[in-house]
User: What shape does this take?
Amino acid sequence: MSLTPSPECAALVDSAERMVRERYDYASLRAVLASADDDSRARWHDFAELGWLAVPLAEADGGLGLAPSVASALIAALGPAAMSEPLPSQLALSGYLLGRARPTPRRDAVLARWLAGDSLLALLEPLPATGMVMTTHGDAVLDGHAGAVLDAGLADVLIVGARQEDGVPAYYLVDADAEGVARHARRGADGRDFADVALRGVRVGASERLDLTAAAPGEAQGYFALLLASESLGIMHALVRLTAEHLAQREQFGRKLIDFQELQHRLVDMQLEAVRAESMLEVARLHCDQGGLGTAAAMTSAALYQAARSGRRVAEEAVQLHGAIGMTDELVVGHYLKRIISNAIIGGHAETHLERAASARGISSPSP
Amino acid sequence: MLFEAALDAADRAFLAEVRAFLDGALDASIVEPEDALRSQVCDHPRQEAWIERLRPRRWHVGFWPVEHGGAGLGQVQNYLLLYEQGRRGAPLLSPLSITYVGPVVMAFGTPAQQQALLPAIVDGRDHWCQGFSEPGSGSDLGSVSTFAERRGDRYVVNGSKIWTTDAHHANKIFCLLRTRREQSKDALSFLLIDMDTPGVTVRPIRLMTGDHEFNQVFFDDVEVPAENLLGGEGGGWAVAKYLLEMERGAFVFGGRLRRRFELLLAGARARDDVPRAFWHEAARVDVELMAYEATEFRLGHLRAREAQTAAEPNVIKIGWTETMQRIDELALMLARVDWLYAPEPTLGPGKDGLPMSSWLAGYFNNRAATIYGGSNEIQRELIFRSLRRELT
Ligand SMILES: Cc1cc2nc3c(=O)[nH]c(=O)nc-3n(C[C@H](O)[C@H](O)[C@H](O)COP(=O)(O)OP(=O)(O)OC[C@H]3O[C@@H](n4cnc5c(N)ncnc54)[C@H](O)[C@@H]3O)c2cc1C
Assistant: This one.
């Protein structure tokens, strides 16, 4: 057997590494984060051209029909960019989820624009806390409020999940500037876009409704977890390299810092954490590809948990070993710490993922 | 306070007096709100307001001897005063002037320097910042290269200091710098400089949270009167070492950490989405915090300073910084997505960074605690040296 990526996967990873090298230095990212409006929309056409957006879509939809492991490898390679463009969420919660819906004219049109890099989507999950309710059947009226929705400030179209009277969720495509939609957008700690979204009497017809299997939204979340873990892994590798370079170059007490054995061991511990996270991610990739995202849920949860835990240790140590400069916004190290912590938070409670993995693997106290 | 039952009658009476005072004086306008806990640097108007209330009892300089304008409190009473303040959310007073400069001026200053400098701190006219670190000299403080060249009755200073907390608020800076070119410790001197002297410029540096707390300070041909030297030419290292002991050990953080921990628990109790593992972890942190509080009191404040071993300030510095980080990590277990972008800016008064939950910003900002004041790696090295001396 072999875990070597396919030639297609290797080519995508190659294009990602080139993009990171050529287009994503921290100075430009800082400028983007400091500016009030985001002009990164143009980049989505490049992403489309490179075939990145086609990864999670079926060939029938114009996609490449590639496995989740390929998207994972792509996102890991992009990790060091710690880019403000939300690729993991767009691939998993927008493209993949929409691709899973049965074709309709509206769905096809929205998906085609997304695939071309012309439009972005955001998913509003039908959480009880959002209070998103529907007042009628068929032609529905959406009312409710969702806080801190990822990508909702950038999005042109919202995928709105709403609970019907019988408790079953239904998903609708709603134009972000439709009458009755109000958005309050702001950047998160790591520069990512969020918005609070309020819907007041938004009318949607049956043609806007997405025909999704009950399992699809959960599988999209599993996909998203896999990609968050992948991005954090890419950042871990970058942090190990940056820290090694810093220690090799910085001199104190007349010696390079790298010559202090204490610091050699600390650097090695960072590397060991990255290896741990990478190995767990490989297991999750295999399960996603072979068994499907549904049955792989325990493994994607385990991979996300491990990435959050290892990622935090690696990033904290990177800051520590850089000294004061690591605390500033002038070096990418601090941004990486924020991104890793943000990924863990966005992915959902680490403890919830741990419990999910544990219970699927039969690790729980015998019931009384 | 954990050792309350062991206090003698006088200290017990003092503690009652402190509590009664805080009941009246520490009102909602003064208490540091939860939002402000994103950093250990408290906003200045709040500090000033609190100092005004402490001033009649001289409790803002409680441990200073009476002849220098302080309250002359002994070790234990000073601890009780500071612990109770931290516990109840009194603003953390900047240590730069009161805890660092004051004691070194008392120990190394000439009578003229003491008369000029100490009352200005007590009265709140002078605000100091600390010019030790340089771009090329962090852990290896002895290698600083900022140079003061003697010309007649003045020094001419050139070079740069970095990570200078509060340089944008201070009117004075104390610098460890070089008065001779060679690399020996007696080439170092301790020089006091007015921030408004021509040639001094300040460049702000932002933390990863966007907060502005520290700066880089540049000196271009800055002329300083020679009498601003503290501890004599070549005596800078002794002054700096004495000051660093204060920086590492003279704080009382136990009460402040205890309050932070309790605020976190109160927040958790008010929510219905808290994982069970949180409470298990909280129990662990509670015990670790008790152990720190007890260590801080036993090693730092129970015995007279002269009876302490050299390593005790280092033990305390590692203790409070790492216990604080445990509390921050516990807070992360409660993190929700809206912590990342804080729909309502939770910056806290006087803060200007990125809007995010103060717990999250606190987690990020407090990563600095194991770096500043001498990194914890260096603290461990110093403890080891002292241990080796004791054991061999
Ligand atoms: C928030 C903040 C506020 C600060 N405020 C001030 C201030 O007001 N005034 C001031 O003068 N300074 C201030 N500092 C600077 C602080 O004192 C230094 O950051 C600290 O001494 C470490 O130096 P450095 O950052 O250059 O790291 P370096 O010395 O470059 O160290 C980098 C890493 O190597 C490790 N290391 C270095 N030498 C050894 C060794 N021999 N063995 C093992 N490990 C080693 C360190 O522990 C660290 O992890 C502040 C720093 C911060 C973060």
